[in-house]
Design goal:
Blueprint: H1 10-29, H2 52-79, H3 83-86, E1 87-94, E2 101-104, E3 112-115, H4 118-132, E4 136-142, H5 153-162, E5 168-171
Parallel strand pairs: 1-4, 4-5
Antiparallel strand pairs: 1-2, 2-3
Length: 182
């Protein structure tokens, strides 16, 4: 008659597997451990072996490298600015009932300022440049969101003349937006 073994096989294999995993981990770490007695080429020299002049020179080199790194970081941060961070958008709205142009005051929530002529537009351009704090200002003129027949073509041409020379564009939901003028 066949009898089952008195001891389970798993009692033997579980510790064996643990030992094999440990040996495999040691095998993986072997390339990172150097030979005893061989100097590491990347290790810094001890300060006791250097003369004061050599120490001063190393300190100056380290300070120069730190300054260059700081300048490089500043340059990369400036270059990493996205276009959204470099451009300030000022939105102007064309009234659906009259076709007049209105700007909203960014400081006052519900204050509409009518842009009546070239001088009002120039004042708005100057104000936008002052508040942009070094950013480029883009003026976006929004057409009415309901079909009303406004703005009429002469009004659009007047708005183009007023903002000639500054980056601006028209957002027309009923057709192609007008060309962006630099």
């Amino acid at each position: 008659m066949i009898r089952p073994p008195s001891r389970s096989v798993t009692r033997f294999f579980i510790p064996l597997i643990d030992v094999l995993i440990l040996l495999f981990c040691i095998f993986l770490l072997m390339p990172f451990v150097g030979q005893p007695g061989t100097p590491d080429p990347d290790a810094p020299e001890s300060a006791a072996q250097l003369t004061p002049d050599e120490l001063r020179q190393k300190l100056l080199d380290a300070e120069l490298k730190a300054a260059q790194d700081a300048a490089e970081i500043a340059r990369l941060q400036a270059a990493a600015l996205t276009p959204a961070n470099r451009v300030g958008v000022r939105v102007l709205e064309i009234d659906a009932a009259t076709g007049r142009l209105f700007a909203f005051d960014p400081d006052a929530a519900d204050t509409r300022q009518e842009v009546r002529d070239q001088s009002d537009a120039q004042r708005l351009i100057d104000q936008g440049r002052r508040t942009a704090k070094g950013k480029d200002v883009f003026f976006l003129l929004l057409y009415p969101r309901v079909r009303s027949g406004f703005p009429e073509q002469p009004q659009v041409e007047a708005y183009r003349r007023w903002f000639d020379g500054v980056p601006h564009g028209f957002d027309n939901p009923w057709g192609q937006p007008g060309p962006v003028k630099p």
